[in-house]
Amino acid sequence: MVTSYSSLHLFLQAAPIPATSDVVTIMATRGSNVRLPCKSTGYPTPTVTWSPAPATSPRFAVSAEGMEISDVQIQDEKYYQCDVSNIFGKTTTNVHLVVTDPLQVQISPQSSIIDDNGSIGFACTVSGYPVPNITWIHVRPDGQNETVTSDVQTAVTPSTRTSTLTLTDARSLGCRNLPLPSVQRVRDKRGQS
After folding, report:
1. Any idea what the CATH number is for the domain that residue 118 is in?
2. Pfam families this protein is in (predicted)?
3. 37 and 93 in contact (C-beta within 8 Å)?
4. Does residue 14 form part of some domain?
């Protein structure tokens, strides 16, 4: 009795799985770790190309799941494109990394009492990303808010992100012998206070 064996190898070849054509937005806080998604599946094993190319830094690592960025920095915020290709096709994933830095506000002085015709200056120093916009607000004795615009001088020093408010006549805001609250509205570019 003669027994014969034969083997058959079956190789399935496939193009990379198509990605969504929309831009995927990923938000990360400065100093955190983040993964930009880009699955690379297919046979033969696809080639993955990121643009812009990851920096030659240990903070960037490319895997089959995407690109890992550790200790995210403000300068990492940009649009990234991941191309996955093999001999059967190509697919692209577009990722927008948005980096934020928590808003911090320091006001000095916190409050002050001024006499009629007196003047006072306040400074508001901010940090955070996106760079915030500052609007000075006066809280009237009746609790209503009003934007401070008359009888005042304001100045902004971009390098230190400081806004100063100089009030030349407290009576113009109805603040006679009352503590003058240094209330301001600080919003980032996305409108978040």
Report:
1. 2.60.40.10
2. I-set
3. yes
4. no
Q: Indicate whether 16 belongs to any domain.
A: no
Q: Which DSSP category does 15 fall into?
A: P
Q: Which CB contacts under 8 angstroms, 24+ apart, belong to 112-116?
A: 112/179, 112/180, 112/182, 113/177, 113/178, 113/179, 113/180, 114/167, 114/170, 114/175, 114/180, 115/170, 115/177, 116/170, 116/171, 116/176, 116/177
pTM: 0.63
Asked if the structure places residue 76 within a domain, the reply is yes
- CA 81/CA 53 separation, integer angstroms: 9
- Distance between CA 54 and CA 40 in Å, rounded? 17
Q: Are 78 and 61 in contact (CB under 8 A)?
A: no
pLDDT value at residue 80: 96
pLDDT of residue 18 exceeding 70 = no
Bridge partners (DSSP) listed for residue 63: 66
Domain that holds residue 41: 24-101
